[in-house]
Amino acid sequence: MLEEENGVDPRLQAISAAIRVVPHFPKPGIMFNDITTLLLRPKVFKDVVEIFVDRYRDMGISAVAGIEARGFIFGPSIALGIGAKFIPLRKPKKLPGEVISEAYVLEYGTDCLEMHVGAVHPGERVLVIDDLVATGGTLCAAIRLLGPMQIEWKACLCTCRVPSLELQNQVNLCQYSAVRSLQANVATKSSTHC
Predict the structure, then answer these.
(1) pTM (2 decimals)?
(2) Is 83 left (phi over 0), alpha (psi -120 to 50) or beta?
């Protein structure tokens, strides 16, 4: 891990700068944080993965659950880096076989996450990853989806969060873990609690 300057990992500034903000997408009033510009910068993309791998490598994590679709970009790399399995949390009707599902409300609509039955087992330590947290609705849905599995929550991870974030208290996230974010104005060790 790189030496921290003033208690903040210097890689965070490059990560923050690599994320483009697109106004009024996908609808008026939404400020969309686009990580595709980060993916075009291999060193910065690698830094995102390495920060999470460094933090969770020796914590006995059994699984990384990635939220479709952008959680699929970071999740498998992090899972491989810490020696864990990857569990895709998908949109409806994308997984064959028996699934469980959880509906949720987005900033601009509604959606649903699904997971294969048997993908996770009681007692496993799980990380959940997505690219960004805005209202907390998608992360809360992932927690509700995985919650009945009697797993041990470690954290919910995002590469960025909307600065004015007030996580919706749809579930008691603090009961499970802190939601951790990578962003330039928040040190990697800080967390946002419900």
Answers:
(1) 0.80
(2) left
